[in-house]
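User: I want to check something. If I give you two sequences, will you return the structure for each one separately, not as a complex?

Assistant: Yes, each is folded on its own. Here is the first sequence with its structure:
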Amino acid sequence: MNAARRSSPGSADLKATSPPGTSQAAPATPPAPGTAELRLPDWVPAPVAARPELVIGAAACLVALLVVVLVVLRRPRAAASHRRHVPTTWGARFLSYVTGRGGVDSGSPNWVEMERFLEVERRNQELRSFFVNFPEHVQRLNSTLELDEVIQIVVGATAEMLGASSVQLFLDEPGGAELKLVGEVHRGAERKSVLGTRVPTNVAPQAWILTQRTASRAQDWPFQHRAAGTLGIRTGRDTFLIDIAAPIHVGEERLGLLVASGLSGLTNHHQRILSCWANVSGLSIDNAKRMVLARQLADTDRMTRLLNHAAFQDRLGGEFNRVRRTGEALSLVMIDVDSFKRYNDSHGHIAGDRLLTRLAEILAGHALPGSLVARYGGEEFVVMLPDLDEEQAAEHAEALRAAVADPPPEDHWDPALGCVTVSAGVATFTPDLDNPQALVARADEALYVSKAEGRNRVTRASLVPAIERRQGDRRRQQQTAPPPRTTSTEAHADLGTAKAGAFAWEIPSATLFRDA
């Protein structure tokens, strides 16, 4: 034992000793000569890196703890719990999924259920918006009978309820062979189409859409129509994309077509919404069109198809007030058929009606842009010429007179009508005129001067002296005065006087009877 404790000369002997009560292990390898052996006590633990089983155990404990936390946080809730608002951002939705407190049912197993719930909420929000705004749109439709206003309300409300970026409204043209673009709404920087564009009704896909009674989505169309994908086989500015479309009917009558595009998440709800809205819109469009037709009938002379006297007076009043404010020009041309009574007596009233109808066609055919032609009464016509002074209006009146007196061969009179001429008077608004009737009276004075000077001519009111105006007044008074008494009239008056005397009437009564 003492020999074992001795070491080589010049070296220190440091050995680890075991705590009392433990056995001492022999060294694995003997120390090299000339070195000292340094050993730690056996009760000191080894480094962590030298013991990987501890790292694995710690990681397993952390995973188990996280699982326990998730189970506890996502424990089943009471049956009385209700769905709360679902967050829309991805971060909030992730927290909602982790914690189970974002409104999703506790039994939701994965993100599929979350997405399904969000889609249902979005559709419910669309329906709530529709039912909230629908009465307001219907009230707006019922508040007007102006066709232009109805069209704007229809397309605007369609874009709002569907969330569409583009909406077009087409109405049937007479005959039903074409559709006419009458209104549209665009959102964003998209190109606008040209109002008045016409598309045929016998071309896919509109030919198929118009046969349906409800709205249809482009994705549900038959393949041959879905392949087209546009309203008509057209290019350039006349191409209209369609996501959903609905024909507009009132009973069995087809009125037009309502189309929309640029929708996000097109569903069956959009079909039901558009079908309901198209039915309501059809009633308002039909009422507005009937009102337009009623106004046209009320304002139109039935025989000549020109504006009648009452409609002309309304338009003249508006133009007269406008030029008084702006100082612009406004001229009138009064036209009268020469010797029309003699013509009627010679050819009959049916020929006279044909003459007035043909004269109305000539006047309307030579109408200038912005002008207005009306039948003033009997055989008199009037032409209102905004923005023309008296000289320009006189030139137009001369052209009308020449067209009647000397029509071209392709526009000749019926030979049975004979030779027909007209006289005209021209007057222009001046600041001294107080009302529209003063302008009409001035043009009428010039017309009577034309007749007094031989007919078949045009006279400007500014060139008519005051004395000639007074002579024109006397001529009109003479023409409207009662006819002179004839011999037969005197005989009847004398007989009346005799009868009055036989009944012993008083002299005043007898005189009145005779004069009557």
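And separately, the second sequence with its own structure:
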Amino acid sequence: MSTTRNLPVLIVICGPPCSGKSTVSRQLHVRTEFSSFARFDMDELRLSVWPISNTAEDRANAYGRMHELAAEAIQQGAPGAILVATYQPMQQRRAVQVLADRLPARLMIFECGISENEAVNRFNNRELTHAADDLSAEKVWDLAQDFPYHGAAIKLILPAVHPDTLKNIILETDILIDIILEKFQAGYATCDLEAWVKLGNTSSNSIKSRETSTLGASVKLTSKSRRKARCKRFWQMLFIGASIICASFATVVAVKALLDPFPFFAQFQNRGFHGNPALWIPAWVSLAGLGGIIALLIDNFYHHSKAELLKSVVTAGLTPRITLREGTPSNFDVYRHYHRRLQSDQQGRLLIDGVPLWFVVLPHTKGFDVTTRRIQHSTVVNQQLLKERAAKLGLDYCGYTQWREKETRDQYFDRSREVGVRVLHITESKETGGPVEITVCKGSYMSYVCTELSSNLYVEGRFGFELRELFEGPAWCQSQPPVTKLDLSNLEKTSQTYEMLVGVQVALTTHDGYLILQRRSNLIQVASGGVVASGAGAAQWIDLTSRKRSLTETALREIEEEVGWVPHKEDNLDAPFLGAAFNLLRGRDLNFYCHFHTRWTLDDISAKATLRRRAYNCLPRTVRSRPRGATLARDAWELVHLIPIPITEIKIKRDGGDILSPLLKSQLGDSRHIRGLLYCLAQSERFCEIKKRYE
């Protein structure tokens, strides 16, 4: 420590919100020993530079600016700097470590600790003008619960805040400052910084506005402008209608004039083509001209940008415009939020550390088939229950669903009417390798959009909320000790608030030892640009109309549509499923994990489609003896390229350890279902036997 005594000092006071960081730092800065230090508070800096913004990008910029100011102050002769912030993100912990090494400076880290309920109590008594206006009581509880304290850092704990004991709090603060002073004079420097950095959150929530409005921000509406817009749109539509009627009349006249010379038109007396052909040409030219004029009118009066603006003025107010943001929490954030809320006997079904996958059907070593039992009446989401819960949060659930459905419809050029499969109950066979039966009914994609795909929508601020709180119910609220815990095994109860559509994730391994993955295109809605399984998608009701009524049909359809693979006649398709799990990032996004091993090679599947092969693949599947190929797949536009992974890169560990090699980790990113698929694959006896051939 003697080597660091003469260095400038960086004092980092960090901790969750409402833990007393600012109180301690202000009292510390008043002390004579630290009065010449520069002091930078994250909240104060944000208020001065970005007073009306709380985005993740601006928070990161504020951290960077704070570090720059601290470096400038020390370089200009200050003996040290006091930095006050939560320092929960890993990248910011790394940044302050790099700053200390670059100056160089002695780094002293002090963490302010606080209980969850006390943090909420302080938050409720905090001034409304505080910089952290993106916080809510629930978020403060979560941050206090999840803060990654480090054993090597000095932990500072302030007493509970009560108005009548303010003097006692000041005295207690003096005691904490004496601790900091004692460590400072002793030449203390925090050790094991690498461990402190790695404990930080690996990602910060990136958020984007979900408000959809066709009107510009500067457009103002009055009752007079609305009346004029309605009148103008009425005359436009009337003009288009009159044009169509006139064109139809002219078409009838032209066709009659054209066909009059033909005998078959006059009571079908004779056959032949009489008449002067020179008279036909003006008639067809007139028809083409009328068609062009109508198309031009429709484009000009209906699809033109001005017409769209006019339409938005006329329809303003018909659909609510709800300002919600969509967060993208990290896998670990979602994992720990669910882990502590689950019943103790269900926490063990989160099989992969840090990945929010809750296994409804545990991995099977021998595989199984999934059969379906269809029921005619559909058990729909309980709208009344969601309305009541939403009303307690100040949200009109009916208005929300209108806004969400319109927002989704606007994203589609021409959405096809596909009917999904909604699961209501899962029954596992008592025999090893026996089939798993799921009770299903028809599902609604729009309901899925309003439930699972809306889990990460939220409102910021002191009285904010997230929709996951709405769907999960009272067990999700953590500002006070919960009365009940989440029960994910009760599908009947869960289906009251989630649509529970069924999907499949398919792993395809080739005869020459490759696992085929795919990189998704940026043109699709879900998993855009990410890495997914060989085939992935939602089950369709039409898949269950066959005699087998098995999810195997869905798996085969999805992989043929996306990758172009069709089974070899010698391929074994029996009991292909390995497990099933909820992707908790999307609430109850249920997928069954499936594995096929084919006699085809990687070249057979991904080879360039020659003209001869294109002609050959026009033959029925029962006739041709080769796979269709990825370049000829029906939905090949959905993927950018295939990713072949050597089978030997998948480790076989049955103790819940890491199954990902560095190659796979670099490819997968934060994909969840693909991790669940690989985990199940590593437990499969069939896959183990295949893997031995290539080791």
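Because they were folded independently, the notes below concern the second chain alone. The first helix runs from residue 21 to 30. Confidence is low (pLDDT under 50) at residues 160-171, 204-218, 267-275.
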